[in-house]
Amino acid sequence: MAVTIGLLDRPEQGRVEAHNGAMRTVLVVEDERDIREVLRRYLEREGLAVLTAANGAEALRHIEQTRPDLILLDLGLPDIDGAEILATSAPRIPVIVLTARSALEDRIDGLRMGADDYIVKPFSPTEVVLRVQAVLSRGGQHRESEDDVRSFGKGMLVIDEARHEVTFACEPLRLTPHEWSLLVSLASTPGRVFSRHELVERIAGYTFEGYERAVDSHVKNVRHKLGPEGRQVIETVVGFGYRLGLTADG
Ligand code: CA
Predict the structure, then answer these.
(1) What is the DSSP string of 102-167?
(2) Which of 33, 66, 102, 161 could cross-link 148 (Cys pair, CB 3.0–4.6 Å)?
(3) Residue 169 CA to ligand 1 centre (angstroms)
(4) Which CATH architecture has domain 146-244?
(5) What is the per-residue pLDDT across 96-138, written as a single tens digit (0 to 9) for each?
(6) How far is the CA of 218 from the centre of ligand 1 (A)?
């Protein structure tokens, strides 16, 4: 009993520890108090620092002030649509969307907006913790590959994995975490064809119904960001999947 009370009674502790660099911070954005507190308890038990927000305004303040490592985001918030927060924070901070909307179309829209994962209510807190750890460990892999700057197509496309930056024709590309994973996966072996199934495994870590359309939609978004000059960067191989259409430099 004492342990449980201890976990519930330290809302500010994680915040402090988050700044020593060793602890990862998760921002839980959820207007239902019970869900918020259950998630806090489960996440803290796994050694994560937890910040909570009961509405969109609080969430945006936390994102600006603390820069969490991951956001658990309820789309149905009292003041603003959670999707607005997703649009604001998706390019840099991984987001797992929590929602009661279970329709397939909504799942695809959520992924298209840049969420890293999608959990439909009602969910088990244990499942949420596992998904959080999966997303955080994918981010960790990127950080481990230091000084890994690679260029393709005679410097047209440059991927800096340690800094998490991509430039095309000297212009920085603002990619969502999923778009980033897609491009890095294709660039891991230029010219090799990756199936949609393989790509979604690399991007999301697992497959789900409708994943083919989600992959297609990420490809479409990356192509749009690359612009007309970048048309050849991601090639469609009809009936098979996609490949990087540029050769590696050096
Ligand atoms: Ca809600």
Answers:
(1) --HHHHHHHHHHT-SEEEESS--HHHHHHHHHHHHHHHHHHHHSTT-EEEETTTTEEEETTTTEEE
(2) 161
(3) 42
(4) Orthogonal Bundle (1.10)
(5) 988 876 555 565 665 556 677 888 888 899 999 999 998 888 7
(6) 27
